[in-house]
């Protein structure tokens, strides 16, 4: 009879995420993971497989806890408010990131995905979900009149996604509130309906 696992999977995956997130994929060994997760290397291999398999599990766990949680909290808000809250939380998280770890998904896109077709698909799939969240918000806002209808919803969603990725990368090098806030100001201005833009002295057409 197989022995039951003597560890809590959620706890050890959290520890794996933290180690990969801080040190990256290439610089992490199975021995490093064993020490970080409080397991033997044999236990890791038996429970999760090799380093690549652990990284995949850790990345999935990270995405569920970060993006999945954020969308769940914000998608019930009014559309434009949901987009603003999403970005404001990202900026605050970036500013409080003392170790400048950035976003594990974006880090994966830069470090692992270029050399691994499966991770290319994984990262691309999550980015498609993020863009779809933005597109749903924009479409809902265009329907209720709170977001500018002059631009296609898919184009606006793509702009929001590229801004998000830019913030995440730039924040690792220059985590400056004024700089990051400055990136989203014109983006939010572009979402404003024309009538509202004309009344906003901070917007210049």
Description:
The chain has 205 residues and is mainly alpha-helical. The protein folds into two domains: 8-61, Arc Repressor Mutant, subunit A, CATH 1.10.10.60; 75-193, Tetracycline Repressor, domain 2 (Orthogonal Bundle). It is 73% helix and 0% strand. It is built from ten helices and no strands. It has helices at residues 9-23, 30-37, 41-48, 51-74, 79-95, 104-111, 117-144, 153-173, 177-191, 194-199. Helix 5 (79-95) crosses helix 7. The radius of gyration is 20 Å and the shape is elongated. The mean pLDDT is 90.
Overall pLDDT: 90
Per DSSP E runs of 2 or more residues, the count of β-strands stands at: 0
Q: From the structure provided, what is the oligomeric state, counting identical versus distinct chains? A: single chain
Distance between the termini: 72 Å
Q: Order of helices and strands, N to C?
A: HHHHHHHHHH
Strand content: under 5%
Our Rg estimate from Cα atoms comes to: 20 Å
Shape: elongated
Find the CATH topology of the largest domain: Tetracycline Repressor, domain 2
Superfamily (CATH H level) name of the largest domain: Tetracycline Repressor, domain 2
């Amino acid at each position: 009879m197989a022995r039951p696992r003597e560890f809590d999977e959620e706890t050890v995956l959290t520890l794996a995420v933290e180690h990969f997130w801080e040190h990256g994929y290439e610089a992490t060994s199975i021995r490093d993971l064993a020490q970080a997760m409080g397991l033997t290397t044999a236990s890791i291999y038996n429970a999760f497989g090799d380093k690549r398999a652990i990284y995949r599990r850790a990345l999935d766990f990270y995405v569920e806890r970060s993006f999945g949680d954020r969308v769940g909290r914000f998608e019930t808000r009014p559309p434009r408010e949901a987009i603003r809250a999403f970005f404001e939380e990202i900026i605050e998280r970036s500013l409080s990131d003392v170790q400048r770890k950035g976003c594990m998904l974006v880090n994966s896109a830069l470090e692992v995905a270029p050399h691994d077709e499966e991770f290319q698909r994984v990262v691309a799939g999550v980015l498609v979900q993020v863009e779809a969240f933005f597109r749903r918000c924009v479409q809902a806002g265009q329907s209720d009149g709170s977001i500018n209808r002059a631009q296609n919803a898919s184009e606006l969603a793509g702009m929001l996604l590229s801004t998000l990725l830019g913030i995440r990368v730039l924040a690792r090098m220059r985590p400056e509130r004024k700089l990051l806030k400055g990136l989203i100001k014109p983006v939010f201005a572009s979402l404003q309906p024309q009538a509202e833009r004309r009344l906003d002295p901070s917007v210049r057409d």
